[in-house]
Write a structure and sequence with these properties.
The complex is a heterodimer of chains A (78) and B (411). Helices cover 53% and strands 0% of the residues of chain A. Chain A has 78 residues and is an all-alpha fold. Chain B is of the alpha/beta class and 411 residues long. Chain B has one domain: Thiolase/Chalcone synthase (Peroxisomal Thiolase, Chain A, domain 1, 3-Layer(aba) Sandwich). In chain B, 33% of the residues lie in helices and 20% in strands. Chain B contains 13 helices and 16 strands. In chain B, strands 1, 2, 5, 6, 7, 8, 9, 10, 11, 13, 15 and 16 form a twelve-stranded mixed beta sheet that branches. In chain B, strands 3-4 form a two-stranded antiparallel sheet. In chain B, strands 12-14 form a two-stranded antiparallel sheet. Classes of the chains: A mainly alpha (78), B alpha/beta (411). Chains A and B meet through helix 2 of A and loops of B.
Amino acid sequence: MSPAQTAVTAVLTEKFEVSAESIRPEATLESLDLDSLALAELALALQEQLGVPVAEEEAAKNSTVGELVAALNAKRER
Amino acid sequence: MKAASAPVSVTGLGLITPAGVGREETWKGVLSGRSAGATDPELKGCAVDLSCRIPLMTPEQARIGGGKAWRMGRFSQLAVLAAREAVADAGLDPARWDGARVAVVIGSGLAGAAHLEDQTIRHHQGGPELVSPALVPMLISNMAAGEVLLDLGAHGPSLATETACASGASALAVARGLLLAGLCDIAVAGGAEAAVTPVITSGFQRMGALSSRVDEPGLASRPFAADRDGFVISEGAAILVLEREADARARGVRRYARLAGAGQTSDAYHPTAPAPGGVHAEAALRSALAEAGLRPADVDHVNAHGTSTPLNDLTEAELIERVLPHRPSVTAAKGVLGHSLGAAGAIEAALTALTVHRSTVPPIANLTPDNLPFDLDCVTGEPREQRVRAAVSHSFGFGGHNVVLLLTAED
């Protein structure tokens, strides 16, 4: 599991109490019951854990878990 | 509608305090007479580093559920948990009630100040982008009511009351008014506070309000004792379910006590000091009695505000001596629990309801008869069995807010 994947899973399960089995790559953040306030908080939490800026559109309601992880991985590689 | 013609009953109690998580744990702890005061590692470096804290909750006890806890200030979480206990205790099921007829009124003194403090540090250290998007909902004082009404599906009138250390009592007075005005059938009301932080504690210490007995934290809160020197900051929540007595009778539910009167006055004297002579506090007491058609001589128990500060306890003791010279029993829960600020009035009203229902008066912690400089019948040492017909619970807040709640025994 990449560091980004680990961070996304940890924040979703620990902070937002999302069940681990529902965190599939194709699941949208909206389908995990994250509203706009939660998405903003998610971006901040990931930014702090990974040390890279997270833009609003990277953690939007239609973003999938897979897309979010890929975007974060790409930043960390730069 | 005359108040006396439509009495309001207390049918549910939820409590989370330094004496315990839950109504029965709190009652047991308060009856023990042992103060919860302790050195607080989170206040390390403060001139006064003692507090009364809610015991560490188990994950089950602390469970908000639904992925919502992260956005709630701690005071809102306590309110939600206490409200669930109170509603269940009243035998009510939020899935079945008519939510449009349920009101929610919850007071807090400092609300989410702890979160503002955290986020201010983050702002200073990392800039505006480190400020949590949840700061405002965690901070604003109405959000305990907001989260409780959301959790319970209550759609009636709702609001927060802010009268500093009387906030929880004000909430009950307002809720009673809503019931008497026919604006709701059930009121979920009380207070919640979670503001034991370095900055808030220092603020109270700098104004001279806190006990400086840092080497004897368990002995620091000593309401009405000759050598009292200030209060011990605390946290907690109490939520009460109120209904018109006729409705409660029709449901056949256990009624702890009647909330038979609520007197509310203001000092208009000083922002933080009580008015000399306690004349406006006395007016609140007399007003609460008048609402129920009772006389001062009918009061057989006083649950005092009793903060353990030199001036509050002096003014309050003189008020009791003057208006209630027949020596009703007196207790002060802040000896055990410390001063939970905006929650205290609701916690003490809940304890008064239990005293009335269970004919038991808890003792004042850290007070002995030889150390009592007032002509009061303070209960010390052990709980006292007493059949209480009418009890008053005093709450006085910075700003000069006086709230006196009158609780009477159900038939």
